[in-house]
């Protein structure tokens, strides 16, 4: 039996300003910091063996603030893996991080908590809506149209991603990079975003395209699944 812990990032500065954010890389507010800390306290007693987060700072801040509350005593360390084809296929700075960020000496790997960063866990890209005020957008396009863009399964905002398109990158990552760790007995913590997590929860719980319309993922609140025999059980208390 393993645990999969999902947490949406705390309130970001653009959440507070009611702006569509998507892939715009904005940090947490003080409220968001408090949410991440409280979320971390809520899971401080759960063993965590591996962490996955997106490339966006609001998710990474949430992961680090939550882990700072943890009782496990491990040091979170970001992992820079060798790309396919070797380091000659990445920039000089990326290559240097891969080569120079290696742990040497007597550091016990059991005391390291690996952090894996993936763009596949990013929020869905909101296209032409990114940076627009949500209330102004509703006035311009109508409540119904904006609701469809925000909550439907297969209708993307202009030049952006739908939830369906988001799932096409999050679910392969779940299958290839997260589930194998769970199958090996590890507990995995994922700090990501409302829509990347909606696509994952939709898959785990077998939700229909209609049911996902009303699925809300609150900021900073852990959602914990028990994984056993390739079955998912959402825990009501942990």
Can you tell me about this structure?
This protein has one domain: Phosphoglycerate mutase-like (Rossmann fold, 3-Layer(aba) Sandwich), CATH 3.40.50.1240. It has eight helices and seven strands; from the N terminus they run E-H-H-E-H-E-H-E-H-H-H-E-H-E-E. The chain is an alpha/beta fold and 238 residues long. The longest helix has 21 residues, at 163-183. Strands 3-4-2-5-1-6-7 form a seven-stranded mixed β-sheet, sandwiched between helices.
Topology:
Blueprint: E1 2-8, H1 13-16, H2 30-42, E2 50-53, H3 57-67, E3 75-78, H4 92-100, E4 112-117, H5 134-141, H6 143-151, H7 163-183, E5 188-192, H8 194-205, E6 223-228, E7 231-234
For the report, how would you describe the main beta sheet?
7 strands, mixed
How many distinct folded domains? 1
- Overall, the morphology is globular
Uncertain residue ranges: none
Quickly name the level 1 CATH class: Alpha Beta
Instruction: Work out the radius of gyration.
Output: 18 Å
DSSP E strands, number: 7
Strand-residue proportion? 15-25%
